[in-house]
Every structure is written in structure tokens, then in C-alpha cells.
Amino acid sequence: MEKLSSRSENKTGIVSHILLLLSVFVIATCGLIYELIAGTLASYLLGDSITQFSTIIGTYLFAMGIGSWFSKYLDGNLLKWFIRIEILVGLVGGCSAPVLFAIFEHVESFRLILYAFVGMTGVLVGLEIPLLMRILKNNFEFKDLVSNIFTFDYIGGLLASLIFPLVLVPYMGLIRTSLFFGLMNIVVALLLLYKFKETRGYRRHFLVIIIISILVFIVGFAYAERIMAYSESMTFQDKVIYSKSTVYQRIVITKNNRELRLFLNGNLQFSSADEYRYHEALIHPAMQALPHARNAMVLGGGDGLAVRELLKYPQLQSIKLIDLDPGMTSLFTHNQMLAQLNNHSLSSPRVKVINTDAYNWVRNDTTRYDCIIIDFPDPGNYSVGKLYTNSFYKEIYRLLSDDGVVVVQSTSPYIGRRSFWCIDHTIASVGFLTMPYHTYVPSFGEWGYVMATKNHSWRNDGELPEGLRYINAATIRDMMFFPPDMCEVTTDINRLNNQVLVHYFETDWGPYAH
Amino acid sequence: MHTDPIYNRRLFFKKVLAGSGLLAAGMYTACKPRNPLGHIKGSIIGANSQVGHLVRNMASLPAPSRQVTTDVLIIGSGISGLSAKRWLHNHGMNNVMLVEMDDHFGGNAHHGKNEVSAYPWGAHYIPVPDIRNTELLDFLKEINVITAFDASGLPVYNEYYLCMDPEERLFINGLWQEGIVPEAGVPADEKEQFKRFSALVDHYKSAIGTDGKDAFVIPLDNSSADEEFRKLDTISFRQYLLEQGYNSKYLIWYLEYGCKDDYGCNLDNTSAWAGFHYFASRKGKGSNCTSSGVITWPEGNGFLMENLKKLAGDNIISLQLAYDIQESENGVIIKVYDVARKESYTINARKVLIASPQYVNKHLLSAIAAPDRLKAFNDFHYAPWMIANITLKHMPQQRGFPLCWDNVIYGTPSVGYVDANHQDLKNSMKRVLTFYLPLVNDDPDAARRKAHVTPYEHWLEIIAGEMEHAHPGITECIEHADIWVWGHGMIAPRPGFIWGQSRKTVKEPINKKIFFAHTDLSGISIFEEAFYQGIRAAKEISNQSV
Ligand SMILES: Cc1cc2nc3c(=O)[nH]c(=O)nc-3n(C[C@H](O)[C@H](O)[C@H](O)COP(=O)(O)OP(=O)(O)OC[C@H]3O[C@@H](n4cnc5c(N)ncnc54)[C@H](O)[C@@H]3O)c2cc1C
Description:
- The structure holds 2 protein chains of 2 kinds.
- By secondary structure, chain A is an alpha/beta fold.
- Helices cover 55% and strands 14% of the residues of chain A.
- Chain A is elongated, with a radius of gyration of 32 Å.
- In chain B, strand 6 and strand 7 form a beta hairpin.
- Chain B starts with a helix and ends with a helix.
């Protein structure tokens, strides 16, 4: 090393100029990338990209201004300052995306931290160019200096703005991009440290710091997926307005101008734009036939939307809602926007919310119900699959009054054709008469239900509440018709000791999974 | 703003140094060696071998200070003792007393419970029984395990007790697959051997001997005496497989796993007859299950045991160690040590049913047993077991087939673990897993001695080592692990034992006064055999009584 630099003594001048200009190029690219990352991240996580981008850019530029102004207070060994700043930019900018992603779900004042990051990066990036100009001022004429530096600066900017959307985000993701450019800054620091012999005095100290930083970045790079999994907010198209992990599931609510969507573990549960179709179809065919119903039970359905429909029947004196997750029911009781959606159904004096495991509850309950609504998630795994078995429906049979009606949400008869009919057959196997029906819910597609009774008392001539948007007697009649591509197929009965439904569901939905 | 540049630089430098120091410290704490099992609570709780060992040391016990009289005394509250008690109770014999040395009942069907789940400490399931085993079906009907009989007479099983789907999985070649028969990564020619073996099992399942009896059946004593089948008992399962050209390492593993699981033995210490019995005797039928169905509960066979006990009448007393048996003129005199009160007494019984294992009986009967019986005792060998009940915060995230009832890890010493929560319909993140490790050894005495001095931490290392292999990161999730060592867990069906003379000899009653019932009299340890032996002995007693 020693020898090499002395042999090329006369060339050093040119080499170091090129090196410094190359640094300009790299730092310009990095600088813009950090800005783009912050802007993208903010619009992913906070929604409303125009506002996010323009405030982020504004803050960033302003912070750069502060940095530039501050540069005049740096004196003495400028190269050493420059290397120092490179390391800092690398660390702060490089860590920005991973840190912001990781903390998004967990902090109150996310914005504050976001802007602190943007500000810090801006200040440091703002320091870079003025410092560099001062370092190079003795090697160039002023006009060349300015022209060179800004040329490289803007070319770097162009490169950044092109590769960011075209290559980096799609192929590396935000976290890896951020870490990668952090690493670039550090590499610049490392190169300068090695190419300039005047850095010899403090090389060791910096080297330690640089190595540690590189290690951190490599570890971060390897764990990018994990960090990402920490915050899956990016999987949602719309602005995430609420997200929370309860003991049982991950609740995410997104919003755009038109609708509110609820996701449980990433699966869409409803869209406020068309949930009325789903819930009216779930409740009214059964309830219109039960003018004497006194009590009802809803299993699942912690969003309170099924209960909202039930409450339209004044004859019902008590409604029990059994939902595993207190996080879910309390959200839909206390959150203003969501409670508005279910018309404050969960706070009604006629409604009792019980947070417990549905199977356990049903097994131990001895009440007789006139109407039972079963609104569980689709049978995509073995633990939910149990709630669709003949053993479960036997318990339901025991709990239903003689003239009562049960309705079971039964996945899509179009996509999950075998699953749907398996549910129908399983319900029938314990002695129920079943009446399958289906409807179209735009955000779900074709959706199916199975209505079940103990005798032939069900009629489609009851009184429907005022103000329904979808259900009337004709709709109910039409929903019972199954066109050939959804009509009955033979299936096994879903039992606890075979769980065929989970297998059907997997094969039915397999082609639709990503 | 004006700052002193030098001061500024120093400060900067200090900060960077402090920062990187912090970072280094963080990395050190993350990587530094610490006890990775330190967070796991629990202890070795089981195996009350101390009380048991008192039998060997009668002289150290106090002299009897009082007397009790009963018509029949049963020693041991295992499945065999309780079955006998129930049968006698159902047949009008009420002056029957049962003594159990332990502080709990059930012997190997013992079970426990914590806030997460009930769990077994030993036996955990029975296969769907043969419909000809009517005594067993009657009992299962009585306790609502069978809810009804369908039109064709087949039992309808309570579906909360039939093992729920998914039942079994195997960790092999880096992945969890469905089912225990190795599939993933098994070469085609080895699969061929599996097919050949399973065709053979099918043949034996339906094979009938020259005496018109099934080749393999439960209870095992009803099996055919045809030499074609009996000769399988004279050689080890390993030798048999070798002779028949089975050499697939996956098949050999699978069959040895079977021997370990059922008998706690390796292929060398299992007779070929016993090896086939396991597969070929499973001919159960039910209206709502297949012949390979199994019946299980969170507490394992503790469920059956508690129900047997409920139906067995009163006068079942724990913490009473029988330690000596003598004949009297018109009955039997049994010396019993009351473990809690630390005093001895004698029980004068007209008859005694000994439902304790033969390694205990050797001491109990040392004074009165005939020489051939004493000699026969030496042919009873037992496989030691270690059982751990592990409480997890949650199962770590994993790819491959999801958690099942029975979970086996290919190529490890254990026979895997059972998810105690499996039959519990409640949704729960927390789990109790029951981990089964047979202490397979050609010299079980050595294995037993070693097991009794193995410290808790060492057992934990064994368990965590195996579990980590199939579930990276699981150690962190373990909150609690309790351990139980069964010094004499299961009778070993070594070559020649099942159809040899010793088993017959020790089963014989002594002078129509002393009778025997224990699963080891069958030569294999299963619930059905213990149940059968108990009823058989109870019948002998009542016949003699008439
Ligand atoms: C780890 C393990 C797993 C098993 N898994 C299964 C399974 O899944 N399915 C299955 O069917 N079988 C299983 N078994 C077999 C099980 O042993 C039998 O099913 C059955 O429980 C045996 O009952 P038993 O009455 O014959 O014997 P034991 O259970 O041995 O009962 C004997 C009883 O006698 C008592 N006793 C002994 N000496 C004295 C004395 N001197 N005085 C008073 N009392 C005394 C003992 O304390 C004990 O309670 C398993 C066994 C083990 C060890």
C-alpha cells in the first residue's frame, strides 16, 4: 500500500480529483434516493402521496439549506470532516427505511420521527457539497469547480430518479435500497480514507467505525424481510388508517375516498361500499321468517355489522355476539368511525358481547335461540375448519329452537364450489333441512350462505324492515337459484377426524392464491 | 452561532466512539454465550422410585401395628387393577379393597394438568378397537366414548374423542410432511419396499391360522397358535427384515420407530411376531372412522383411567405400599406400609389380585414363590422411558405441514411429541407438547441407572436439541418443562418371550388364592391388554369364589 501510493505520487493529483468528483456523483445519487425513500415511505404508510411528497421534499431541501449554511463553521481538516459526514449520512440515510418501517406500528408520533430523519439527512447532505467545494478549491479554477461539481451532482440526481422507480423499488424494496445507498456513502468514506495519505493519522479510528457500520448494514440487508414483515402496510392499496395486532389476529383498516376496508390477517372482511349486500343477505332471509323470534346469537362477526341488521327487528329482545377477539369488538364499539358504520350496534342494550372461543361456548351453552348467525372466517386452516364440522353443527342443532333458523356464511360457491357444498352437506348430515343461497358482493365476488331449519316452517313472505338497499322478497327468491357452474357437487362430510373441508378449500382456492 | 471547532471535533469524535461502543456492546450481548435454557422452569417431578424401592428393602420398614380384613385385595391401581375392581364391582363383589403405593392412581396412565392443558405422563391413546372385543366396547359405551351403534351394528364413536385431523406428520429431509411413513425424498426403489411390506401387513391382518384363529389379534392370547406365525416370535424383527431382503434405510427407520413407540425397544430387542402384531392387529371398525383411527384425549389414557376408577366402586386407597405376601390357612396375609403415616399394617384377605408388574412381584413373593416362578421373573425385561411435558408460549412460525396430534422427527432418538391441546377445541396460542423418549439400550438396567442420575438440565439439553432441529427457535418459546422418568416403562417383547414359558408360568394363580393381572403378562404394554388381564384375573377370582 505504502509503496503503491509513492510510486504513483505524480498521478495522485488527477486520481484524487476524479475520486472526489466521483464522490460528488455518488453522494448526489444517495442524497436524492434518501429523499425519494422518505417520500415513498410516507405515502405508503400515511397515504395521500401528493401531500407527503411535497412536504417531505420541502423539509428535505430546507434542511439541506441549513446544512449548507452550517458548513461555514466547519474548519480545520476539511477532508476529515468530509469523511466523517459521509459516514454519518450513510448511517442516518441508510437506516431510515428499516427504522421507520419497524417503528411505524409501535409509536404514537410517527410523523415526528419521520421528519426528524428527513431533517437530519437533509442537514448532512447539505453539508456535503459546500465542504467538497472548499476541499477542491485549490485544485480547480472556480468556474471549473462549480461546473464540474454541479454537473456530477445533477447527473447523479437523474440517475437516482430513474433507477428508483424502475429498478430499486420493484427489485430491492425500500429497505434494501435504503441500506444499499447507506453502504455507498460509507464506501465513499472508505475510499477517501485509503486514497488520501493525509488521512493516515486518523485512519484507524475511522476504520473501526466503518467496519461496524458495514456489518450493521449487512445484517440489516439479510433481515430486510423480517423488518418488512413487521409492517405489512405496503400490501394494502389504500391508506392504512388503523392497524393493530391483537393476541389472535392482525386488524388493518384502510380508507380511500369511496370506502373503508377491514382486513383480518391480510384477508378482506368487508368494504364499506358494498358490505350492506353481504350483511343484508346474511340476516334478512332468515329473520323475515321469524316474527316471533325473541333471541338471537351471532358467532364471529365482531364488526357488529350482522348485529346492526338484526337490531332492525324489534321482536328480538336479546342478541348475543360471540367473538374470540376483544380487540376487535372493542374497536367496533368505541372507534367513532367504525361504530358509525355498524350504527353503534355493539352498544345497544339489547346486545351482549361475549369474548370467548366459539366452539367452547357452543359446547357449554344451554340457551335455546330462535336465530343463530354463523359468520366465521373461511375454513382456510385446521383450527377454523373445526367450526365447520358435523360435531359443531350438532351443538348448533341442540341450541336452536324448534322453529328457529340458522345461517352459515359458506365461502364462494363459484370459486370454492366443493367447499360450499361440503358445508351444505355437513349441515344437512346432522338433521337440518338446508337452503343454500348466494349473492354477488362486488368486493368479494359470488358469495354463498347456507340457511338451515329443523322443519319446513320457513317462508319467504315475512315482513322486511324499512330501508333495506338490497334484500326484498324477489331478491331472496332469486338468490336460491344456482346456475350450472355453481350447482351442487357431491362431497364428503366434514368431520373433526377428517377435516375434508380444509382440503377442499385449499384446492378450490389454490389457483387464486398468490 | 459560534463554536470552538476543536472542541466540536472532539465532541464529535467522542460521540462517534460512544456510539460505536454502544453498538459493539449491543452486538456482544446479542452474541455472547449465555445459558440458552436458563429461562425454562420446571423439574423432574415423576418416577416415585423411592417408594417402590422400599419393596426391596422390607427390613427397613416398621413392623405391622394393626390388622384389616377384606374379601379380596387388589394391589396396584393401574389399568389392570382398576379393570379388575370394576368387573368385581359389577358382579356383586363389594368387599374388595385396592391399595396403590403412589400418591395418585393409574400407574402408566397417569396424567397431569396446568393452566394451558391437561396432558399425559404416559399412555396417551388407544386405537379404534376390534369389534369382537365386546368387553372393551361395553366399557367404551358406558363412558360415552361410543355414543351409539349404527344400523349395521358398528360403533359410532364420539367425535370429540376420535383423533382430530390433522393426525400425524414427519420432519424429514428438512421439511414437515403429512403422515409418518417417509415420503419426501424417498427413492423409488425404497418406496417399493414400503409397498411390499404393507402388502405383507395386509396379508397378516386377514390371515387365519390352521386353528381358525386370527394370526394377530388383541387380546394377544387369542391369536392363532399356528406355527407359521408363532415362528416369527423366535427371531428378532431385525433378523427377519434382513432375511426377507428389506434394506431400505427409510423402511428400517420407520419400523424401528414403530418398535420404539410401542415397546420402547429397538429392532434387535423386539421379536418379529411383536413387530407384526402392532400393524396387523389393528382391525378396528367404526361407523364414523377408519380402521387406522385412534381415540385420544388431552390427558391421554388418564381419561379412561379416571372413568374406570369411577365405575370401580370405593375402597381404592393411595399411598399404601404392599411389601410382603404370605399364605395363611384360609387366605393371604399382606403386609402394607402406609407411606403418609409411616406405619405398617397387615391385611387379611381371602384372595389377593396382584396387579403390579413382575419386577415388583419378584420381591413381594420372594418368600412363597416356587422356583420356576422365581426363575421366570428373570425373563421380564422393561424398557425405561423419559417423558417431558413442555409448555410453549406459542409454536414458532414454520413452513410445511402444520402442527398435528403426533409429530415425529426422522432419525432422532425420541419418538417425537404429541400436542396435548390437539383434542381441545379451544383456540390457544399456548401449547403443551408431550415429548416421548424411550431409553433404548441392550442393557435396560444400565439405561435405568443412568436415567435415575441424569440431572434436569441434561434432559433439557436433549429435548431442546431435538426440538430445535425440527423447529428452529423453539427453545425461546419454551416456558416450562417437567420431566418424568419411568424406570420400568414397558415390558420388552424380546424374541421368544411372548410365546415362551415364563409368561405362562407367572400368570398361573398360586393355590387358588393369589391371582395375577398386569399388562406385562401379555408381553406387550397396551391399554387393551391391561384391561383384558384385569378382567381375566377378576373372572378367575369370581369362578373360584362360587
Ligand atoms: C411412556 C409410556 C407410554 C405409553 N403409551 C401407551 C399408549 O399410548 N397406549 C397404550 O395403550 N398404552 C401405553 N402404554 C402402556 C401402559 O403401560 C398400559 O396401557 C397400561 O396403562 C398398563 O397398566 P397396568 O395396570 O398393566 O400397569 P401399571 O400402569 O404399571 O400399573 C401398576 C400399578 O401398580 C402400582 N404398584 C406397583 N407395585 C405396588 C406395590 N407394591 N404396592 C402397591 N401398588 C403397587 C403402581 O404404582 C401402578 O400404579 C405406555 C406406557 C408408557 C410407560
